[in-house]
Amino acid sequence: MILGENLTFQTSSGKEILSNVSLSIDSGTMAxxxxxxxxxxxxxxxxxxxxxQPSQGEVKIDDRELEDFSERELAVKRxxxxxxxxxxxxxxxxxxxxxxxxxxxxxxxxxxxxxxDFVIESLDLGGGLKTSYPSLSGGxxxxxxxxxxxxxxxxxxxxxxxxxxxxxxxxxxxxxxxxLILRRIxxxxxxxxxxxxxxxxxxxxxxxxxxxxxxxxxxxCMLHGSPKDVFTVDHLYRYFDVNVQLIKGxxxxxxxxxx
Amino acid sequence: MSAQQPLSxxxxxxxxxxxxxxxxxxxxxxxxxxxxxxxxxxxTSFFQALQSSYQVFTQGQLAQGEGIIxxxxxxxxxxxxxxxxxxxxxxxxxxxxxxxxxxxxxxxxGLIGINSGAMLGVIFGILFAKVFGPLNTLMIDFxxxxxxxxxxxxxxxxxGLVYRLSLNNGRINVAIMLLAGVAVNAFAGAxxxxxITTANDEQLRTIxxxxxxSLNGADWKIVTFLGGIVIVGSIAxxxxxxxxxxxxxxEREALYLGVNTDxxxxxxxxxxxxxxxxxxxxxGLIGFVGLVxxxxxxxxxxxxxxxxxxxxxxxxxxxxxxSDVFAKNVITPSELPIGIVTALVGTPFFTYLLLKxxxxxx
Lengths: 259, 362
Description:
The structure holds 2 protein chains of 2 kinds.
Chain A: E1 2-10, E2 16-25, E3 30-35, H1 41-49, E4 56-61, E5 64-65, H2 71-77, E6 78-81, H3 93-99, H4 110-122, H5 138-153, E7 163-167, H6 175-192, E8 195-199, H7 203-209, E9 212-217, E10 220-225, H8 227-230, H9 233-240, E11 244-248, E12 254-258
Chain B: H1 7-39, H2 46-59, H3 68-101, H4 114-128, H5 133-141, H6 143-165, E1 167-168, E2 171-172, H7 174-196, H8 201-212, H9 220-238, H10 241-247, H11 251-256, H12 261-283, H13 289-301, H14 305-329, H15 338-361
Antiparallel strand pairs in B: 1-2
Helix pairs in contact in B: 1-2, 1-3, 1-14, 3-9, 3-12, 3-13, 3-14, 4-6, 4-7, 4-8, 4-12, 5-6, 6-7, 6-12, 9-12, 13-14, 14-15
C-alpha cells in the first residue's frame, strides 16, 4: 500500500507546487492521477517514487517510511517509467535492459540474463538488441525503457507488493506501442498483483482500468474516488474546460466522447 | 549448455570478447611503444631501436651497451617512458569517467577546473614555499609529496567550486557547468599570472618550463609514487563502472535505479583530482589526452564504462609515450614540449573524428 500524508512541495525559490495532498493506493490496484498541465502531477509521482523529498508530510510504502529505505531497497520495490529518457552516448538496447538488474546484484548471473530474456520476449525486442539506443524512434525508445523498468521489478510472484510508477509514458507514441505497453501492464496487475500509479492523459484508459482516480488542480487534490465518481459531465467541465458526452463502457464504467 | 544459455547472455559475452581482443592488441602496442620510447633516441635510428628491442626480447638484455648506455636506458629513458605511461593513463581514465558523469563528451579534467586548480597549487608552492617557514620545512622533509599535495588541494578546490556552481536544485546543470568551468579556468589563469609577477628569475624559469609540460627529469621515485596513486585511483574509478553506466541515462533515472548519485559524483570528482593533481604537478599541463582518448575508444568499442575506462588506461599511455617519442626526436638534439605535440597531433585527428561522426548522424 502506498500512503501519502499531507504532502507539500516547494521549489528552492519558494514556489508551492503541491499543497497538502493526501492519498492512499491499495496493493494490486491501478491508480490514475489526472489534471491539467502544471497541476503538480509529475511532482506528486516524484515524491511518491522517492526522487524528491516533500517539504512537509511523508510517504509510506507498506507502512514503512520512504526515507527508511536504502536506495537499493527502494529500487527493487518500485520502478519508474519516465516520459522520455535522452541518452547522449550510444548504449545498445541490451546495455539499457541489463541496467535494470543493477539494484539486484553486483554480478549479473545467468538467472538475471533469463529474466532479461523474459522481458525481451514479452515486449518483442529480440530483433534489435545490438542497436544503439539514440538511433531508435521515440516509440521504440519508450518500449526499451519500459523493458528496463520491468527488468528492475523482476522477479514477480503472486501478491508481489511491488509498484510501477508511470509519468505520462505514452505521450507521442504510436497506437500499437501504446496498446502493447498498456496490455502488458494490465496483465502484470492481474497476474502478480502489481501496483500501478499512472499519470496519463488518456482519460478513457484511466476510466476503463483504474480503481481509483485522483484529480489535481493547482497543487491540490480536488477529487478522488472511483472513475464513476470522478468522471462526470459536471467535473469534466469544471476542471478540464471541456464538454463531454458520457456513455457506458465496459463494466459500466464511464466512457467519454469529447465534442 | 550453450543451448540453454539466454540470448542476452550470449550477446553480452560476444561484446566482452570483442573488448578483450581489443585490449590484447592495445596491450601489445603498449609494450612495443615502451621499447620504442626507451630505445629510440638521438643517438640511435628508428631501425637500430627496433633491432635492440628484438635483442631484448630474444636474449633478455642488450647485446652491446655496458655501463653508460645501460645507465642511460635504465635511469633516464625508462623512467621517462613510465612517467609518460602513468600520466597518459591517469588523464585518459579520469577524462573518460568525467565524460560519463557529466553525460557530456566535452568534459575532462581540464574543462572542469581540476587541471588549473592543480596549476595554482604548484605555482603557489614554487613561489611561497621559501617565504613561509612551515611550508619550507614541509618542502624539505617531503620533497616528492609537497607539490603533488598542493596540486591535489588546488584541484579539489577549483573542481569543487565548478561542481558547486553547476548545482541547480541539487542536480548538475550541464550548461552552467561548462560556463562555470570556463569562468574558473579564466580566473585561475589570471590569478596565476598575478602570482607570477612576484617571482624572481629562477622561479620564473622553473614555472615556465613546468607549465609547457615535459616528461623530463623523471626518476624511479617519482614513477613509483605517481604510479601508485594513478593505479589505485584508476581502479577505484573503474570499480564505479555500473554506477557510471546508470548515470549515462541521466541523474533522475540513475536515482530510480538505486544509485546514490551524490556519492558517485563526489567520488569521481575527488578521485579525478587525486589522479590529475599530482600528474600535473610533475609533468605540467598536458592537454587533450583526457578528451581525445576516451572519445576515440567510444567510437570503436561503444560507451560501456568498464570497457571504456580500462582501454582508456592503455590507449592513454600509448598516446603519451608516442607523443614524447615524437617530441624528443623531431628536432634533435633539442626537444619540443610534449603539450605542444599532444595538441598538434590530437587536434586534427579529433576534428577528423568529429566530422566523420557528424556525417554519420546526418
